[in-house]
Amino acid sequence: MNFKKKISESIISWYHINKRDLPWRKTKNSYKIWVSEIVLQQTKISQGINYYNEFISKFPNLESLAKSSDSEILKVWQGLGYYNRALNMLKNAKILYNEKKKFPKSYDKLIKLKGIGEYTASAISSICNNEKKAVLDGNVYRVLSRVFNISKPINKLSSQKIFKQKAEELLPENNFGDYNQAIMDFGSIQCKPMNPKCNICVIVKYCKSYELQNIRSRPRKIKNQKKIKLRHLNYLFICDKNYIYLQKRKNFDIWKNLYELPLIETNETIENELLKLSIQNKFKIKKINSPLLSKKIIHKLSHQKLNICFWKLEGKAMNFFYNKNFIRAHKSEIIKYPFPKPISKYLNEHLIK
After folding, report:
1. Separate counts of helices (H) and strands (E) for the chain
2. Residue 195 covered by a domain
3. Are residues 196 and 268 in the same domain?
4. What's the mean pLDDT when you consider all of the chain?
5. Is 349 a residue of the active site?
6. Which residue range is the domain that position 247 belongs to?
7. Are 318 and 273 in contact (CB under 8 A)?
8. Are 16 and 83 in the same domain?
9. Are residues 139 and 273 in the same domain?
10. Catalytic residue among 9, 37, 54, 168
11. Distance (Å, rounded) from C-alpha 115 to C-alpha 73?
């Protein structure tokens, strides 16, 4: 038996004893595995479990998802971020359902769906269809880079071929889905980024980085200097008795199709009198009261820093907004609308009970 086969068998044996009890591990239904994989993109498992359970409860199958609206799916997704994931799921569901197709489980069909790349297609097809496909996620990269002492940066395009080859070399003769889940769990629980459990590792004798004592420097990753865009968002909280005014975002950004308060975006932090003029100019209002600053927060995204100010606007402006195609929502119905996290939090704190 060669050492690569011993590595994969050792990882599978470890998995049978140490695998995590996760809800999607109780099924091989490709729809449910797809939901779990999309939920867990850019999301920790501890956070993803509740979202997965709520999603499956609301949309238990392809048909129920296909018959839903973007607002319904975004409401379930609220707070998870990267909302295009949810919108792509809805698009896929509608296309498949309209074509009277089941959710696929073969790699070749999965890879054609919107929002599904090599990793997701490999994971679903190996788990649900026992296809011989190796997965590469952050945990697997870490295990491979340490076991084989690969010094190539994991986030460099030219390195992908090397890691993919090593991942495929470790695939067992069968039960590819179990193995893929095993090596991902192994990387998450055993071969951790910090303080890996080398003293009780079942493959330590095959690990080149342990032998060379360079575990801490594996995997290598090129640090990219992200250019963070600074934005100044001024939201207008206009409460008209039991109603507030909303609008639906149509911009092609991460909050597309979510709801928000009427917005004035400025190039810098703005005082209330200047904001008053901006409101008058944007919405063609002649007379309004000066807005009152209600709350100021900073909301950080992966590529943006948002300086958000919430302003209360009272008086004559309310009639104007009523006539300008904004949504006039009763406070009892606010819970139905999907909002970006900072707006949802503000409304929960400040909406008049």
Report:
1. 15, 8
2. yes
3. no
4. 92
5. no
6. 229-350
7. no
8. yes
9. no
10. 37
11. 16
